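yo, Site-specific integrase is done. seq:
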Amino acid sequence: MARRATNNPRQVRSKSCGCQLCIEEYPDPKRKSRRDCIGSWQARYRDPAGKQKARNFAKKAEAEDFLDEVRTSVRRRTYHDPKRGKIKLSTWWETWWEIRQQTGRVTTRNRILAVWRAHIKPKWGNFPLINLELMELQRWLTGEVKGYDTQKKCKEILRALLEAAVKDGKRIPENPAAGLVITATRNEKHPDDLKPPTAAQYAMIHAALDPYYQVIFRDFADETGMRPGEYAGLRLHCVDEEEMVVHIKEIIVNDGGRLRRQAAPKTKAGFRTVPLTPRAAGAIAFMKAKWKPARTRSAIGDGFDLHVEELIFRGPRGAALNINNLSRPWKAATVQAGVARKVVNPETGRTEWWPKINAYRHDVTTRLHRLGIPEKDAQAVLGQERGGRVTWVYTHESEGARERVRAALGGESGLRVVS
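structure:
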């Protein structure tokens, strides 16, 4: 091990000092002479990469203490360079996001980007990393970020962003977002706002739909329980007409306002085979006769080239199905049928409409449960990773349940007490 320099820390010559050494370095006959030097003490050291650095202190003892501390941190690999922590959060975001956006689903990436732009960047984007403190972040999260889910997402993004800064050569010594606490209350929706419409309500909605959309919603979505992105991306090579099944191999998602092909469904359980009822098979036959989809199997490429000529289900003008050409006729039909109602989200205060298109999955699951289909089989057909989720999220009380309970409590169930 090399011997330490005897002149480290060393005193730096000053133009304002009048000692003999400083006058020799910076001659000035008008300067008043003095015996002791008042120049600062410079501590020199090498970082883990071997690059020499220096820092000045007013007193020699302070410089020596700093040298002992920094040499120990370099040896123990806990050293961090304060200058690297002076980078602004928005600049560090660009570095972090360049890698992060390459992983995960498109919808997840877009959600992260939306939270960053709407909440984190306006407040903290111009702050240096080293200046971010736990209590200031917590005060902002509690006082300015509304809603449980929004607070949760802000916390997750900040924690991941700053954790990467800790690991990147110790830009900051510790993660100030690691101790953030979600203070908003998670408000649960009433069961009536979550369950699907009744059979009678669905009949009124379907009657109000244009015949073309009746084929999509009534004849296919309500018969298969498939997600809108799954049947929007369905191609002819995924349909086995002899076995009367469809294979879910890819989906169409909305990527910042543009439709994109995604090579994998929502989860790995989304890769599945869905049986077709005669009515669902009839919907596919109707679309085949109308659009004559190509049986080719094109590569996904950049994802934005949808190859609409291969799609089975399309909008009434031949375009790929999207949130507009599905939601607009659906909402109009629910309003015309007198079924639609406004529901205020207790967390965000935004007004939402019930029922939604994805209520078909809830309806299908409830029907399967009522007919005694094992949970594992329903899980496989619906494409859920956990069987329990099928029960506690998608399964709702069956029609007539309240009437049967009322009759039982009123002594009208027909049961007799046996002594």
